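Box 4.2: Ligand-aware structure prediction
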Amino acid sequence: MNRSVPAPVVCFGEMLARLSPPAGLPLARATALDIAVGGAEANVAAALASLEQPARMLTVVPDNPLGRMARATLASAGVDTGTIATGPGRMGLYFFEPPAGPVAGRVTYDRSASAFAEASPNDLDFAGALDGAGLLHMSGITPALGPRGVELARAAQAAARAADVPICFDGNYRANLWEAWDSNPREILRELVGEARILIGNHRDISLLLGETFSGDGPDRRREAAEAAFAAFPSLELIASTARHVETGQIHRLAARVDRRDDHWQTGEVRIEGVIDRIGTGDAFAAGLLLRYLEGASAQEMAKSALAMAVMKHGITGDMIFASRAELDAFDAGGGDVRR
Ligand SMILES: O=C(O)C(=O)C[C@H](O)[C@H](O)COP(=O)(O)O
């Protein structure tokens, strides 16, 4: 029997090149930097395509080797790169100093005036990308880039509305970006989340959106936050979040939670020892969630796969995870010895 090909998820947002010194060597004293391709929405596209859920990237990159590297990286995961435009401007960069022992990790952005941040909605083929799509995935990073980012995010949502494509919005709050301009994140994010069917964000994101504090980390407080968000945003169908406890830079505990209007599920905590790279774990989570959401899975199954993807990503260097569906199915959060 032929399994019909699922409609693609369109991932819209900026791609970045990440430069990082080895753990333990501060950037200011580094002599060599490792390079990797990232960008929250692109990370989701790569993970979904690796899981055999078709994904299409919608972005603008410069016509230079860094832009080509971004495109080639996604293509190697099987992402449809036909709606990646090229435009004037530079590749956005960020520097990542990994946490090392007692020293916390740090991100330094160098992304202003990038090809994406300078783009106007006319530079992107929103309608073409969304034609036949099953979902638009975007995040709070695009509007955080500045007034042009807000315009791009609004244009993406308008195109999704016109094409009748539901929206998944990942809060991805980046304080450093919002604080770099005269922004009003609450007002802008409220407007954008108002269009979404799925929100990826925890009780702190919801506190920011509603201007009401949901402090405390217990499941009851999270349910209260989710119910307040469902009341404030009539289009929302599902809210997903991780609950992370950081013991040290290398030891984290992680659980996943899915709230719908009439049910919810929170997984048990997985203790992750020897974290290799936590960047992109939220995007791996999003991919595991969306994979199952599009299959019509239960809240429990969505939370389980989202958690498995996020936990696996902690053991992988770089921003992206290219896990296969078989690897996801076989994943045992307890880890293990070499398979041979
Ligand atoms: O910071 C940005 O603007 C980026 O897009 C770079 C990274 O690829 C994502 O931040 C990863 O996101 P997480 O999965 O939440 O760790």
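In the box above, the bound molecule is 2-keto 3 deoxy 6 phospho gluconate. Residues 239 and 259 are 5 Å apart (CA to CA).
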